[in-house]
Amino acid sequence: MAIPLEKTAAEPTNNELQRVARLLGGTRILSRHLRSALDAHELLIHGLPGSALDHLLEQLVFIQKTDSLEKAVGMSLRTYQRRKDAPSKPLNQDQSGRTWKFAEILSKATDVFGSQAEAEQWLERPAIGLDQRRPIDLLATPAGVELVEDYLKRLEYGVYA
User: Fold this and answer.
1) In this protein, which residues make up the domain named Antitoxin Xre-like helix-turn-helix (predicted)?
2) I need a labelling partner for 114 at 20 to 30 A (CA). Which of 2, 55, 105, 123 fits?
3) Per-residue confidence at 17, pLDDT binned at 50, 70, 90?
């Protein structure tokens, strides 16, 4: 008899997946509908289309294509500019994963702060709970990503320090 697996807190809901997918261009750019975290995993293994990163960057209001954003998605501005000539060429697994994670964090921050503009401004400002570091700068490493995600959870539940 198979034992049903319960959904863990870390597994994104379908709503969360759809919000992240929309930031990356939705089914039009991703060429598939994501129904589960495993669908997202498969997409990232094969590489996000370069146009998904373009779409994400076009959605940004306050964050500029600076060294901070380069740290967040793992691609220099020069490499990004070279890729513009081949938008259908997939990102590598690392760039795909980091682009997806950035979109996830932006989506979560948008929920917490009520608008994408507020979320972007929060990512760019030093945060007390992150020892006066800018959240976007911390996205350069897995440990930093975890710190930002934990801090967003604390903010969501009203624990600011």
Assistant:
1) 39-103
2) 55
3) very high
